[in-house]
Amino acid sequence: MRYPDFINSNSSIGFPAPSFGCTGEPYFTCFNHMTEVMRDKGHILYPGNNAFKDDGVGISTNPKDCGLELTEMYLNNDIDMLISCGGGELMCEILDYVDFDAVKAAEPKWFMGYSDNTNFIFPLVTKCDVAAVYGPCAASFGMEPWHESISDCYELLLGNKLSFSAYDKWEKESLKDEENPLAPMNVTEDRIHAIYYKNELINDAVQSDVSFSMKGRILGGCMDCLVNLIGSKYDGTKEFNEKYSEDGVIWVLESCDLNVFSIRRAMWQMEHAGWFEKVKGFIIGRPLNGEPMFNLDRYQAILAVAAKYNVPVVMDADVGHVSPKMPIVMGALVEVNVSGNDMRIDYFLK
User: What is the pLDDT confidence band of residue 254, given thresholds at 50, 70 and 90?
Assistant: First the structure.
């Protein structure tokens, strides 16, 4: 696995818009404030040409221009790292216009984003063997003040921090809107992990004495996007599993639009594509749309497949669309330590 150089206070940051840009509120104001914050920290900024476009369908502009911009900015030696402007809906359509051969041959640089950005991060890791950060998009760095999770992502990019613990509370309802675009994270709900370990589901791990560790390569992203990549030329999972078979894989998965039945179908599809053949454990983010339907809840949506592998499963984790989110270095070798309701991820960049 190749790891890009960490940035420093003088590093340049590019902001491509391979999915949605930063038009409309609160994103426009957040993005502009983020640029002030990052410039105050000493960074040189390169907003992409598509950052403020909104003539696309599910993305900032037409797929070809999005793909070409992402490639050009990744190959631009004047830009040290990339933070995606935002998530969206149809980033998969840009992939035919991304030159992955050139990206693979280039000096690696950090790319960070989440949600729809899974479409670039997953092949970047599995096909190009370059680590990437599944973390907040550009506008999140415009909030005032930064939540600890935002600071953690920045400290990771600087190389100052490689160990991260779950946060105490999570955000059930955001205060950010057009009238209050820079609102801080509204964390009001206690973090309570659900844990499946040794054939037992613990719905509330707060009082649990369960303790274990998982080691392996971390891989995954947004399930909404991942299922579309299965079997395509952008799916390098088989090669990744083979190359890192001795390490094994800890799958980090989360979902946006998928309901509990869609989640269960996605897990079935990934299983039957052979993705979980080297699984060492699962970390599952709080689903954005995880309300029970009929007799299926968000836990059994996952465990119907995950439980077959007799590996630990941590659910309702700080990953994905329900903030805050721990920075996930996709492709990295990790050790995950769980003790009761607490979880820590240590990264080993080798």
Answer: very high
Closest C-alpha among 237, 229, 182, 238 to residue 25 = 182
Q: What is the separation, in whole angstroms, between the first and last Cα of the chain?
A: 7
Instruction: Please name the residue that has the structure tokens 């402007």.
Output: 85
CB 184 within 8 A of CB 150: no
Query: In terms of C-beta distances under 8 Å and separation of at least 24 residues, what long-range contacts does 232-235 make, across chains too?
Result: 234/95, 234/100, 234/119, 234/122, 234/123, 234/127, 235/122, 235/123, 235/126, 235/273
The Cβ of residue 335 has, within 10 Å, a number of other Cβ atoms equal to 15
| pTM summary value | 0.97
Angle at 119 between CA 117 and CA 121, to 5 degrees: 70
Position 21 scores a pLDDT of 96
Distances (CA, A) of 156 to 72, 187, 225, 226, 318: 25, 22, 25, 25, 16
Name the nearest CA neighbour of 278 among 315, 319, 243. 243
Q: Find out whether 225 and 119 touch, Cβ atoms under 8 Å.
A: yes
Handedness of CA 216, 190, 167, 43 (dihedral sign): positive
SS3 assignment, position 329 = strand
The string of pLDDT tens digits covering residues 318-327 is: 999 999 999 9
Residue 83 CA to chain centroid, in angstroms?
12
Q: Is 254 helix (H, G, I), strand (E, B) or coil?
A: strand
Helices (H), 53-108: 63-75, 100-105
Mean pLDDT of all residues in the chain? Answer: 97
